[in-house]
TrEMBL record:
Keywords: DNA-binding, Transcription, Transcription regulation
Protein's name according to its UniProt entry: TetR/AcrR family transcriptional regulator
Domain spans labelled HTH tetR-type: 16-76
Biological source species: Leclercia barmai
Entries under InterPro entries matching the protein: Homeodomain-like_sf, HTH-type_TetR-like_transc_reg, HTH_TetR
DNA-binding region (UniProt annotation): 39-58
Keyword Transcription attributed: yes
Length: 216
């Protein structure tokens, strides 16, 4: 599995504080809008770090954007791992675990949709796409591992494949509602609570169904 690249932190306190202000200001701007709104001048204004100091650290806003994305994705990954760990510790039966996991995944994505939108909108950049894919794959694997802990209760003849499919379908439906990536025009269509409930029911039904495969 591909891991997110590490971002080196400055060792001096003053440099570290300045970098934290830069990153915080950049995240704030991105959360409010798009990549186009992320300008060196606006970052400098909000962070209190001079334009010259910003260019001393980054070649331009493209490099800063990548650094911000790496930091954000590392934070989101840590949060997702924590959420799934706590859910695992509840030792829920599959019939309760699946809806709880889908509900948790939905609220996690909605909570961070604002910062995810500008990242996904830049998926044509190979570096951005690579970082995003690494996070997606880690989340997917954690989702699979959690449900496969209850694999003996899954009646589908191919449990791991079925669980992966549930993650794929759920993620696509949630991303569409939240306007992530190419689904921006469909943002907000339907009822959020009903969507979460339906995804839970759908995935549970799929996993609990002993699908009869057609004879070749």
């Amino acid at each position: 599995m591909t891991d997110l690249p590490d971002m080196r932190k400055p060792k001096q306190d003053r440099s570290r504080v300045a970098l934290e202000r830069l990153m915080s200001a950049s995240r704030e701007i991105l959360h409010e809008g798009t990549f186009e709104l992320l300008t060196i001048a606006e970052i400098s204004k909000r962070s209190g770090v001079s334009v010259g100091s910003i260019y001393a650290r980054f070649s331009g806003k493209e490099e800063l954007f990548v650094a911000v994305m790496i930091e954000v994705m590392q934070g989101l990954d840590a949060e997702w791992q924590g959420l799934t760990t706590r859910l695992r510790e509840r030792h829920l039966p599959l019939r309760q675990l699946v809806p709880a996991l889908l509900d948790m995944q939905a609220d996690y994505l909605r909570r961070h949709a604002g910062i995810l939108r500008p990242f996904m909108a830049r998926a044509d950049d190979e570096r951005i796409a690579g970082i995003g894919k690494a996070t997606y794959l880690k989340n997917e694997q954690t989702f699979i591992d959690l449900l496969m802990d209850s694999g003996v209760d899954i009646l589908h003849p191919h449990p791991q494949q079925a669980v992966k499919f549930c993650f794929t379908i759920a993620y696509a439906a949630l991303a569409r509602f939240l306007g992530l990536g190419s689904a921006s025009d469909a943002a907000g269509e339907g009822d959020w609570d009903q969507l979460k409930k339906d995804l839970g029911v759908m995935c549970l039904s799929f996993l609990m169904s002993p699908v009869i495969e057609e004879q070749q």
